[in-house]
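Archive entry. Fields below.
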Amino acid sequence: MNAATTTVSVWGRLSMLWQRELWEHRSLWIAPLVASGLLLVILAAGALRLVNVQLGPLQLGGSVQVTTPDAQVHIDGVHVQVTTPEASVRVEPGRVVVESEDDDAADVVVNMPGILVTDDVQGSSAAHAVPQSLVLMIVTGLLLSVALFPVTGFLLESLYADRRDRSALFWRSLPVSDTATVMAKFSLVAVVLLATWLLAVPVSVLVIGLIKVSGVGAVIQLNWTAGKWLVGQLALLGFVCVGLLWYAPLAAWLMLVSAWAKRAPFAWALTPPLVLITLESILFHSKHVLGLLGSRFMPPQPLQALQSPQLWLGLLLTAAMLWGAIALRRTADAD
Amino acid sequence: MTALIQARGLSKLYGIKPALQDCSFAVQPGRIVGLIGRNGAGKTTLLKALLGLTPFAGELSVLGMNPATQRDALMRDVAFIADTAVLPHWLRARQALDYCAAMHPRFERAVAERFLAGTQVPINAKVATLSKGMVTQLHLALVLAIRAPLLVLDEPTLGLDLLSRRAFYDTLLNDYMDGERTILVTTHQVEEIEHVLTDLLFIEQGRIVLDAPVDVLGERFVQLQVAAQHLQAARALQPFHERVVFGSTVMLFDGVPQALLAPLGDTGRPSVADLFVAQIQPQAAATASAA
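PREDICTED_STRUCTURE:
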């Protein structure tokens, strides 16, 4: 047998496995794109005065030098709280500028309450000042939350849909190991969420631009340099990466149920935890399971999470559940 | 020559129901083997065991590999179409080609495209929009384009009309078979592939009841249309099957020389379908001869 064989690299095979999932589950990439588009369209409509989201012309001016921490600054009715000494606060038409020689000032302002609402300036108009870093967080968080819906659906369907529509035998007739199938599907979630983070980078820049143009609010400019902007984005990336590790057991659980369920994987995903919680409360009058699950759903603080044993135990559990999903996939008879 | 497939004492239980019982057989390279049996006889289970898709007991070697433990390596040298496997409704023909090209080292895209060009399947069509026959054609195009040493076809032409079935078997014989490849095929349309097969494997209730090359069938099996006055003489030679067709009795003999039978009536070579019916109905034959 000397038939020509073509060898495709491991990377080529993996990207085709991902591609295959994106063909089937198009909402994985459509949902974040649609959400981004809607967000930008609404803001652009505001900028073009097509919808009434603008809050009136802002004619402000003046500046003040702060020398004490926790200063309350009022300029033309704009109220700014500055928690660092040695800063200058300047209010210009459309924006509030806080400048400081102290590098830490950036952190101070990043941690400020998200939206500063000024008092009335002219008539009933008000100005909103939003820190740039908060825009990054809100935009990234929004797109990630939108992506989580199709991702959850995908995980529940991942090892179930092709058994239901009886195409599993077709997929398994090709030289793709069950391990490769399961791991490709599992890793696709990370790819989708990281791509969503990447999508949020230009979208947040556009959002900031549109907020400025629309006059909806002033964006605080705090010595923002490309470097600091990059640091902000990378911090979000770190948050996403730790989040992927932290929530991995939940994803693996959905895949395990997907590999196991004969029907209604969604119901099967919810039933065991609910039964455990109920049994525990009836038998022991305690809520340990609920507490454990609840703490798993809470977003992790990246640095704390990396040092917590819960994260690493969760990853062990993830490995065990994925192993189970592969074993179920291997022995599952399609009929 | 070492056998391409070697099975010894192959067994499989579904619960307490035996799906395969002590099956032993060998398939040599370059053969076209018809695996023939009724629904539920164990055909699909046997194929699944060969492909490592279901656990089994006994010894099994396919292309020198153990399907139970080396499925991943085995699938690189096998092309496989299962009667129960359907293509997913969301898949486009072009995507199916893209996927197979990336995933199967022996997939030749040009072959699949050529086969598809001879059908009504549009390259951009989703499976959901194709007729049942066109989906089968797409699936066959994918499988025929895999130049693997072993091709396993489980009811490959299900849902195809006569013309498309012919076209498929012609392609199979002309393009696919090169004397080195081996094909294992199951079908209900035995008559249509009779001339294609080189070997027969009959399976009934999980057991192999006949394992013979087609070219010895004529020497081994004789069909006799018995003249009425020789009925007793013919029965004395122990036919393994007897039936009445249009008032005359037709018997099948295994290993009885044609010279002995010729004086008793018209002898001939039984068709595969006749042999199959006779092999799986021994009780019926016994009842008939007792009556």
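CURATOR_NOTE: Residues 51-60, 103-128 of chain A have pLDDT under 50 and may be disordered.
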